[in-house]
Amino acid sequence: MYEYTGNIHIHSSYSDGSLEIADIAAKACRSGLDFIIITDHNNLNGLYDGKEGYQQNVLVLIGVEANESKNHYLCLDVTKEVIKNSENPQMVIDEVNQQHGLGIIAHPFEKGSPCFADGISFPWTDWDVHGFQGIEIWNFTSQWKDHVCSTLQGLWLVFYPHAALSGPCPESLAKLDERQGQGEKIIAIGSSDAHGYSMKVGMFHFQVSPYDTSFKCINVHVLTQLPLTGDVAQDKEKLYTAIKKGTLWIGYDYFTNSRGFQFHITDGDKTWQMGDTVPLNKDLTIQVVTSVRARVKLIKNGKTKQLSFGKRHIFADIDPGVYRIEAYHRHLFGYRPWIFSNSIWVE
Ligand SMILES: [Zn+2]
Ligand SMILES: [Zn+2]
Predict the structure, then answer these.
(1) pLDDT tens figures, 203-235
(2) What pLDDT, in 10s, does the model give residues 270-295?
(3) How far is the CA of 309 from the centre of ligand 2 (A)?
(4) 86 Cα: distance to centroid of ligand 1 (angstroms)
(5) Quick one: DSSP state of residue 121?
(6) CA of 156 to the centre of ligand 2 (A)
(7) Measured in angstroms, how far is the CA atom of residue 254 from the centroid of ligand 2?
(8) What is the 3-state secondary structure (H, E, C) of 124-187?
(9) What is the set of domains in the chain, with CATH numbers?
């Protein structure tokens, strides 16, 4: 497998982001990313203007974030604009599926901040929907905003955003586990939702939702079957095939890059990756590798089943269920949330 690091859910000057796509790609390159996915609000003009492709060695892919007042939905791997419908998100989900795209529910439990736009938030309100492919469990900008309760605290969190970024949104993670437990093979992603807003408080100028910082924080690491070669159409297909399957993990890469993480199930002969379904047999073990010593939780059906500490982690006694991994690395006097894998299903 070949690992590529990317950042999903980014706004450019085609909607309310502050930079043009070329400048965002340059920042992604400096942050060491292999790909980014731009999702401007309710338009695909970047795609129509030919901005998809390699820029500064970064593969720029372009999707769209549909809807306005609520029920924001990331529509990826689509070629036509998706008609927004904030009141009836099932229509939006269905249209992405008609285009054989990849649809992800964005920041579903966003709460908002009294310091921004009178506390307005954009949660997902309709959980009777079906047919979506994923849930955004960790969104830099949403979580950052949710933590700002005063101007003073906002200034502190501009200076040190990591204090707000306390791990995936618990409600989103619970919803993922719940839907997976009901048999839906949906995926989890993490994102930046970067806009690069400039703000001014008194004599201070600062950036909210900065591109540079957020490209170093909540990234996705995608494992492809074949290496990317520079051919835009083929590389796009390789990445989206892996993302749709969920062969990826979310890494908070700022303090310790999560590159090289491994999570698979083996019977000694055959190996299964994230996104796979494994037929039960008595020889199955779960194998996990982290690049530094970490506290690792094996989560089964949404509950912690076993704990491990170190760099190599082996879990036996595997019975049917949905398995995923959470890893926490040492930081200052405690541990920071670091790696959140996608799931492997054992039947
Ligand atoms: Zn949104
Ligand atoms: Zn957004």
Answers:
(1) 878 888 899 999 999 999 999 999 999 999 999
(2) 999 999 999 999 999 999 999 999 99
(3) 36
(4) 11
(5) -
(6) 23
(7) 21
(8) CCCCCCCCCCEEEEEEHHHHHHHHCCCHHHHHHHHHCHHHCCCCCCHHHHHHHHHHHHCCCCCE
(9) 2-252 (3.20.20.140), 262-346 (2.60.40)
Who's near 344: CB < 8 A, 6+ residues apart? 263, 264, 265, 272, 273, 274, 275, 276, 277, 278, 286, 322, 323, 324
Whether 222 contacts 248, CB under 8 Å: yes
Which residues neighbour ligand 2 (ion) by CB within 5 Å?
A: 65, 193
Dist. CA 305 → ligand 2 center (Å): 34
Task: Give the dihedral sign, CA 11/17/21/27.
Answer: negative
End-to-end CA distance of the chain: 24
- The rounded Å distance from CA 43 to ligand 2 centre is 12
State the distance from the centre of ligand 2 to the C-alpha of 20, rounded, in angstroms.
16
Q: Per-residue pLDDT for 170 more than 90?
A: yes
